[in-house]
UniProtKB/TrEMBL annotation:
The gene is Srp72. This is Signal recognition particle subunit SRP72. Residues 542-681 are annotated as: Disordered. Pfam families: SRP72, SRP_TPR_like, TPR_8. It comes from the Eukaryota. Residues 563-573, 665-681 have a biased composition (Basic residues).
Amino acid sequence: KMAAAAGAAAAAGLWSEVNRCGQNGDFTRALKSVNKILQINKDDVTALQCKVVCLIQNGNFKEALGVINTHTKVLTSDVIAFEKAYCEYRLNRIESALKTIQSASQQTDKLKELYGQVLYRLERYDDCLAAYRDLIRNSQDEYEEERKTNLSAVVAAQSTWEKVVPEDLGLREATYELCYNSACALIGQGKLNEAMKKLQKAEELCRQSLSEDSDVTEEDIEAELAIIHGQMAYIMQLQGRTEDALQLYNQIIKLKPTDVGLLAVIANNIITINKDQNVFDSKKKVKLTNAEGVEHKLSKKQLQAIEFNKALLAMYTNQADQCRKLSASLQSQSPEHLLPVLIQAAQLCREKQHAKAVGLLQDFADQHPANAAEIKLTMAQLKIAQGSVTKACMILRSIEELQHKPGMVSALVTMYSHEEDIDSAIEVFTQAIQWYQQHQAKTNHGCCVFQPKSPVHLSLIREAANFKLKHGRKKEAISDLEELWKQNPKDVHTLAQLISAYSLVDPEKAKVLSKHLPSSDTMSLKVDVDALENSHGATYVRKKAGKLTGDNQQKEQGQGEVKKKKKKKKGKLPKNYDPKVTPDPERWLPMRERSYYRGRKKGKKKDQVGKGTQGSTTTGSSELDASRNASSPPTSPRPGSGAAVSATSNVIPPRHQKPAGAPATKKKQQQKKKKGAKGGW
């Protein structure tokens, strides 16, 4: 009894210690005291619960979950459901956390809060939205602002990933988190300018709220603003301002934010800007997308986009095996997705295996008819690249849902015209027009009342008529033109075309139709011809016809006679021209390019001019100097002596010169050597 009493007293003291440490937030010391209590009574439910809480507070989620799983008999789901689900959630075992929450007998407020977080991570946004609405409706505490923030995040995710038009929740955007989520929702709707304004407001609110805390530094503020700036850069990228976006992305990377998800998204966006350029930078950035924990921070679509870009980067860097491996992995994860197959086909085309690429695309189109249209468009492009235009047309015409589209009709007609297959081109027009006729009949439910045709239908009929007229198919064009005139009897242009076509086939019919043309009086345009001719853009101005007096008439007649007497001037001939001698046929060529040019003859005096060392003079230079002959008696410098240099001379100073006699001496020595020795060394 005394031992039991002593144990109870010790336990009471330990519980007091646990309570005091818990209030102070010292969970490490509290855990030591709890362990001592468990040594006294290992199945103490309260002590085990306290131990789990202390481990969670210290971030030891795996150890906490281990304690729960080893004491399942004591720690039942009713007792510790929230703690177990929270540990599983923090360990990224989201499916297990959902099962734990759903298996709990009583759904507490804490479990409901966690349930909303779990649904968000599982991307079940509709259920998540309902859960948060229920929480906001039935809760009144200090966490209401956080719940509203989470609710706005769900709406933003729906708008971004599911393209759902968000409903107005009536949330007052008093915090930067709410502004940021609202901006994300606007980006999902494509309202980029409005989203940018929201982000600017979010940045302003963030700075205001953080600057109020004296302990927060400017670096902390910039780190918190990183995600807002990242979203701003993304808007710039979508708007085509890639240089501005790239600059902002790199500024965020230099800050080295701790959010690996943010870094991965920014790195991926830079890779998309680089494309097949600046591949070395892309290979560096792709390492940021492989950081630990990225897969738990991003949505499935974000992770998928990153993997697609990795495969494309492998293709651009000529890593064929890596590209095939990544694209095959993506295809196994999403068999119905187009991009993995398109990447594989692009890689095959880079390897000049076009036939294999077309076969791969055809197999995919057969297996997934819903996505066949886009695949067949790619197949047609490959056929055109190979020069098989007719086969490309066959593939395009097999896409039934696009046969009537104006773009498809235009492409097929152009391609058939290039191949000079006019009959097939006309057939394309006919099928498209018939489709619109059948579609109109279905919408009118068999009504006999005249119904105007749609603008696209009329446009196709007109294009068909013009095409047939251009290629000489007058009879076939007549029915189309009559249909157009029937729709709009006041269309003079169509009536003129119809008359022109009938004039070659049935002239009598053309005469009858010509009566419907408006009279010339009604068609006359009130145009001031003189003002038009005198306008700035007129290329020809007609002279005004006025009455001429007798003097003016004589002057004009005299000028006419003078003009008639003027003759063409003869070309000037050279002074030494001899009509008896045949002109040189090469006289127009420079002397060096003529066939008889043999070069200039070498003379002794000419050779000496400009030769020798820089600054030296020769005996001939004094004879050529007119100034010396005029002002002073001719003198010639002696060999080895320097000539006088004037102050205005351009000669290089003497320190750069060599003795004047040196070249001559050298020449003499060379001449002696040539005379004496014939062989050489």
